[in-house]
Amino acid sequence: MRYSKVKVFVLMFTLIMGNYFWAQIGMGQWRMHVTSAQAIDVAVVENTVFTAFKNGVFVYNSETEEEELLTDINGLSDINVSTIYYDEVGEAVLVGYENGNIDKITSDNIYNIPAIKLAQIPNSKRINRFERYGDYVYVATDFCVSKLDVDKDEIKDTYYPTNGNEAILDISFSVDTIFALSPTMLKYGLLTNPALPDESQWQVDNRLPVIAENEYSEIEVFQGKQMILFKKDVYGMDSVFYLNENGLGLLTDSPFSLEINSINILNDTLFAVNMDGAIYMYDQTLSNSASYNSGNMFIWISPLRTVLNSQGVWSADKTKGLFLFTSGIGYKRYPIVGPYNNDFYSMDWQEDKLAIASGRLNGKLPSFSRNGIHLFENENWEFVNVTNVQEWENKNIWDFIDIAVNPKNTDEIAIATYSEEPLSVLTSDTVKLYTDLNSTIELTESGNGWSLVSSVLYDPDGNLWALNGYTDKPLNVKDENDQWINFDCGGSARNIYTKKMIIDFNDQLWFASESKGLFGYNYNGTLGDPSDDEYIQLSTGSNSGNLPSDNVTAIAADFDGEIWIGTDAGFAILYNASNTFGASPGEYDAQRVKVSFEGNVEYVLGSTHITDIEVDGGNRKWMATANAGILLLSPDGSEILEQFTVENSPLISNNIFDLKLDQSNGELYIITDKGLVSYRSDASYEDPTYEDFVVFPNPVRPNFSGPVTIQGIRYNSDVKITDAAGNLVYKTTSNGGTATWNCNAINGEPVVTGVYFIWTATNAGKDKKVGKVLVIK
After folding, report:
1. Can you name the CATH fold of 341-487?
2. 455 and 416 in contact (C-beta within 8 Å)?
């Protein structure tokens, strides 16, 4: 169960909160980065439009032009929305989820109805459709039909038309009969039958053939006829039929020649067929009386669901979000701020730019995903894909698995893949591809014709490093003159599956492998002279590195010259890492942090599978795990300061792929298997010049409940707060370049209204006044 059984979020349909959730977040707050392209469903309540996206619901009031984005962080109880429905009788918007959860949005609250989600069954519980009939809303799920009392938030009965063996994709009603559509057949039963939960009480409707190939997907009742959407596996071969006394009639003019996404009723006299490229409108005579066509509007549309109000037809589009069609050629888009899709794999951050590689691998094998990269800067998202980069077109390029931003020029992005085009470097006006033909990157020794570049990074001088797996010389560098060099890292590093790579504060390279542990390389500041280069390998076993496992999954360098090493069986620390090069075996074993607990000595985090490690401005360590969420450790690793999981926070999954800190403001970006979220932490890099010093919020108003954030100061500064008379009110120490104040005095009592001055200690130990803040009580 999530951290709140019932989340209450005040939401008047006038949307008094406006655009608040597009802005940056405050200290200790979370935000969900909802995919902006694929809208999956839409409902309308007079002038308020509710649009379902993968991880949230966008609410737009067309009269006031105010908008709100609801997620599980600010009101909804879950993620992965599957459908949305306006129940006019119950005056509520119902939100269904992939896992069977249901939210009910009323004019003033959001209520959670988790009964189906909590059902103890092994099947999928996905909510497919809602449909009101009489006193109840009926819910079609992947294993049953449930009868929901919206007023009492209770499931009153459950029916099993297919005994849970086939999903119920849609439902419809006629007098006292309920129809349940599965992918292969249509079944019906009498609502007055008290034994209806029993599968044997359901009959197959023989007017619709039982099929073994392709599938039925939706059913609607229009003008007294049951409309059925039939979808073929082959693209562009779908049709809409209707049932009559003699069997089937054809609605769509061109049988098996359309790619139809859905069907739905717009009002008593209009029926919509939503398809790739168009919306066909049918009147009460079943004539195609109107349409909205991509060719007429000069924009490609692909509506997944449509609704109608006085302003026109609103469409949830699977590639462009929310549309309003006002005429056959007029339209307006309502974009939300968010990434294009929900595919994220690894990240890099430099100078306020977040770059995300959006491909993936299937284990160690290619997935052939052609999804590109996302860029996030100044609260704006950009998506770069194979369809909008000319140099990628008609190339065998796929699986964008790592990315790096050049710190000397953040317009330059390097992208790593496992394909025939293993490395791309993009600038604002150029794209250059590197392969085995124009660089030292080599093809894998498996002979598949591809190259694996598992990791890329820029060093402080702007040199680009590329980790080339399954080759004899995995470590490669391109200098600023576009000259390439590769390095021999020893026999154990040859022809292995490589993973992540970092560079520490002494310009030493460290890279991970799946089966050979950790490798370090010191080029001693001379890229072109290998004679003074040194390398080491750390693996399991005493005198060999003493790692918890040879499968190294995370690496990080901290401010004390330590290398933190995450594996699939816990983490270890290599102290004084610079001294390990040239040392004898056994002199550079990694150490595990031990603590006493209830009389026993244990390793911190035990054998937890670590997936990533990030070091924040206070030298604390953020640990990503495969199944335990995120943990924050003290600088020496001996203390767990915080743990965020699905159960105790807005984190959307405990399976974390990657972490990346915006070191200028402390926002921690988190890639999970279910999407991207972020959390504003209380640490950042220092600013010794105080040029970017900021205090927020300022003023502090009576309804503000969070901490005052003091950011842009020296590393681990002593911070003092005084009143106008110079009396000490509060003191603390910054985490890196950030400190916080809860507006309480040293005695724990809230301070009174007034102006308070902020002082920090310089390196010379003298107090320096850096700012002030107005507190209003």
Report:
1. Methylamine Dehydrogenase; Chain H (2.130.10)
2. yes
